[in-house]
Structure formats: C-alpha cells, structure tokens
Amino acid sequence: MGEVFFSSDHHFGHDRIINFCKRPYSNVVDMDVDLIRLWNETVAPGDTVWYLGDFSFYRDQGIIEAILDQLAGEKHLILGNHDNQAVVNARGWASIQHYREISTENKKIVLFHYPMVDWNGRFHAAWHLYGHTHNRFHPVVGERAMDVGVDGNNYRPINLTQVKAKIENGWQGASGWFR
To answer: Could you tell me the residue range of the domain that residue 148 belongs to?
Structure first.
C-alpha cells in the first residue's frame, strides 16, 4: 500500500489564477504542464490522493479526463466551489463527495474544501484539512488544521508525514508561523 497525499486548488485551465495567486507561470499551458510534472514527481502510482476541490476550470470533460489520466495515484475528489459538471462527470475519480472523514495511521482527519472553525473530533485531536484559501487566510490558527492547497505547498500534493510535521510543529502560512 502506498502513501496518502492531500492537495487542492490546482485550477487547471484557469489563466487568472496565475496573477491572483502570483504563481510563477507566464501562461496557463505552462502552469498546467508544470503542475502535472510536480504531481507526478511527488505521487507514485500506488499512492492515494485526497483532492480537496477546485481541480479545473476546463468545461470539456475530455480535457479533464486527459489531465486525470496523466496524474499518478488513486484520486478521491472532495468537491470545491469551482468543480463544474465536467469535473464531476470525468472518468478518473475513485470517489466524489462534499465532505469526508478518514482515519489513517490512527489519525482522524476531516476533509472539506472550506476551512471550518469547528469539526468532528476537534477536541479529541482530529485534524481538519481544507483548501479554498490559496494560503491567504487561516481562520483556524492555533488548531490542528491546515490549507493543503498547492499555493502553500510548493505546487505539489503533500503526504501525511508532511502534514503531521506542519500541524504538530507549527507551519508557516501567509501571515507567519502558526501553532
């Protein structure tokens, strides 16, 4: 069994996200190609990826499926606000849901596209992983929660060990170190 990874907010095909998030790309084609490369340098075919929304702005299901086909790992989608019907209908997702609670390596993790100020198990050491904020806003500072989106994680999915290190040792988001 492979590793477990988390990611969100690639926004494949979204040219305005480059300026909005100050991504280091000159155009959407360069961004899409590089994000696929970085994913595959990080995730192996036997790994599992929990994808927390906003996968693509493309409206063509064939384009979305072509991207999914290039990405390593078993991919589970937690729906985001920009995941259109073509993303939902695309072949390549092992599961699709709005919200999910998983347990891995004896750790309960609540997965949702949006940051929450409270979640199931919060007072019993459960973690909350989210996307949506593009590493710009952290409403759960001081809690066991973090934005797993590409904009705050070197444009790559991050694994459970990396999440654990960031949550337990403090992590640097847009506004500095949080504990």
So the answer is: 4-178
